[in-house]
Design goal:
The complex is a heterodimer of chains A (about 250) and B (about 270). In chain A, helix 8 runs parallel beside helix 9 and helix 8 packs antiparallel against helix 10. Chain A has ten helices and no strands. By secondary structure, chain A is mainly α. The two termini of chain A are about 25 Å apart. Chain B has a six-stranded mixed sheet, sandwiched between helices. A four-stranded antiparallel sheet of chain B has the order 2-1-4-5, with helices on one face. The longest helix of chain B is centred in the C-terminal third of the chain and has 17 residues. Classes of the chains: A mainly alpha (about 250), B alpha/beta (about 270). The interface between A and B is medium-sized, with 28 and 33 residues.
């Protein structure tokens, strides 16, 4: 079963990269390199240390932003989900945040917070946090009433009900929100580097494009997607370890 | 009145002489303008099984949840072993209609949940849980997850969880309504054994007339809008005749018919 899943993943990767290679060889545009050219550029940039240098820049706002979004997002989400007053107070903010055209707001952020790390972290947070908050609060609100009553009737304290019942029950949807939020955070990190100041991976993208070194540009884009995919897979592993019985849905199904 | 046929049955039963484990005194419950229960009083004899039977909307589950301490009555009080109920307590355990198992926890952790919340040490609560898993016939499934079990087995887990905390009173909210007919019959027979073995007071909510008459020492008929106790029936003669003979006992059949006659008018 696991082997089949792995095989399918490999197959879809081969199909995708094959299509990329073919599209690059036609070529669909002279600005679109082949898969192999891009991989060669990626290999070179990794070997000469450029990638590591770039990621040491990019990962800082990304990691800080994602950590803040995850911790604060889940905390606010729990709060909003458990208390209708905070729901009324905070939900609109995150709905607006999620719908806001971020690229257009970046000049405002720069005006307020400068061009440094703070602005970039905020961009990552604006991208990542709303979906984490909204998913968490929705999941918490929809905890099946009967398992909460079960906790009460078996004398669980309020904290126990929250930690042992509400959060585990909400965890699949919380993790779905984390997955969506974190991938949005990756987009936010690159967006910040393209729109605020070109550093790290955003710098490679901007610079390579300006000198028409398209393989390097696509190599940088590819590397960030790869990193995001790897990170999301790791997250899935963490979820499976933490909440083992959740893999097959709910008992009441 | 529609309830007149029941009078004959109650007239035959023995006069009530028992010690109450649970007393419900003048309970009323309003949801806004809606009167769910009005001035309801009821005694639940110790060591016996009492059914709350009535058409849907008669407030039987509401009453059960008030006894459990999960709902607050608008007025009136519930006493368990002479102590007034102010919330869930160690003296009561609940069996849920939809099982209310934790899907991410194994059978043994689900069964031990109540003990865990009471602060029983891990090794001790696992030993107790194992004993009750065996008792409800699920030995070998300790490490299974709920989704791997059939509906009937899931409710056995729910029952084991309630038995494991060793409460005096077992509250069962339509526990067999979500399992198939054959499993339900087996459950009913097992329940009769359980009432005999365990020295516990059972309060059993059901909408099945046959089920109520089959398993109960005492049946409280509730009528809706507003909910009230219309009749208390105590079957007397067939309880000792063995599980196989109850369903063809004349008294059993009479009581079932009479209850239906009195409830018919309330079923839309």
């Amino acid at each position: 079963m696991l082997n089949r899943a792995l095989l399918l993943k490999l197959l879809s990767a081969v199909v995708l990269f094959g299509a990329w290679e073919i599209a690059g060889r036609i070529p669909v545009s002279f600005a679109f390199p082949t898969f192999l050219e891009s991989m060669t550029a990626l290999f070179e940039m990794t070997m000469n240390g450029m990638m590591f240098q770039a990621y040491s820049e990019t990962l800082r706002p990304l990691a800080i932003g994602i950590a803040i979004s995850a911790v604060l997002g889940i905390a606010i989400g729990l709060w909003v989900g458990l208390n209708s007053f905070f729901d009324w107070l905070f939900s609109p903010i995150f709905i607006v945040m999620q719908a806001a055209p971020l690229a257009a707001l970046i000049p405002l952020l720069v005006l307020a917070y400068g061009i440094g790390l703070t602005s970039k972290v905020i961009v990552v947070c604006i991208m990542a946090m709303p979906v984490i908050v909204l998913n968490t609060s929705g999941a918490v609100r929809n905890t099946p009433e009967s398992i909460k009553e079960m906790g009460q009737s078996f004398l669980a304290s309020k904290t126990s009900i929250l930690l042992r019942i509400v959060i585990p029950a909400a965890s699949p949807v919380i993790f779905a929100g984390l997955r969506l939020g974190i991938s949005a955070g990756f987009i936010g990190a690159i967006l910040a580097e393209l729109k605020i100041t070109p550093t790290g991976v955003g710098d490679i993208i901007t610079y390579s494009r300006s000198i028409a070194d398209y393989p390097s540009m696509y190599a940088a884009i590819f590397s960030i997607i790869l990193l995001a995919v790897l990170f999301l897979n790791l997250l899935e592993k963490i979820e499976k370890v933490l909440f083992k019985g959740n893999q097959r849905g709910y008992v009441s199904d | 009145m529609a309830m007149s046929p029941i009078k004959e049955v109650t007239a035959q039963t023995t006069p009530m002489e028992f010690e109450s484990a649970v007393s419900v005194r003048n309970i009323s419950k309003n949801y806004g303008d809606v009167e769910a229960l009005r001035d309801m009083s009821l005694e639940f004899p110790r060591g016996q099984l009492t059914s709350l039977l009535g058409p849907s909307g008669c407030g039987k589950t509401t009453l059960l949840k008030i006894i459990a301490g999960l709902l607050e009555p608008t007025s009136g009080q519930v006493e368990v072993n002479g102590k007034t109920v102010s919330g869930p307590g160690k003296d009561r355990a609940f069996v849920f209609q939809d099982f209310a198992l934790l899907p991410w926890a194994t059978v043994i952790r689900n069964v031990a949940f109540g003990l865990e919340m009471r602060g029983v040490a891990a090794s001790e609560r696992e030993a107790i849980a194992e004993k009750y898993i065996k008792e409800v016939g699920l030995a070998g499934f300790e490490q299974s997850y709920p989704h791997e079990l059939s509906g009937g087995m899931r409710q056995r887990v729910g029952l084991a969880r309630a038995l494991a905390v060793d409460s005096d009173v077992l509250l069962m909210d339509e526990p067999f309504s979500a399992v198939d007919e054959q499993t339900r019959r087996k459950f009913q027979e097992d329940l009769l054994n359980l009432v005999q073995i365990e020295n516990k007071t059972f309060i059993f909510v059901t909408h099945s007339i046959e089920e109520a008459v089959y398993v109960s020492d005492q049946i409280a008929i509730l009528l809706p809008r507003p909910s009230r106790v219309s009749e208390i029936i105590r079957p007397s003669s067939f309880r000792d005749k063995g599980v196989d003979n109850i369903r063809r006992d004349p008294e059993y059949l009479d009581i079932v018919d009479n209850i239906w006659a009195s409830l018919r008018g309330y079923v839309e």
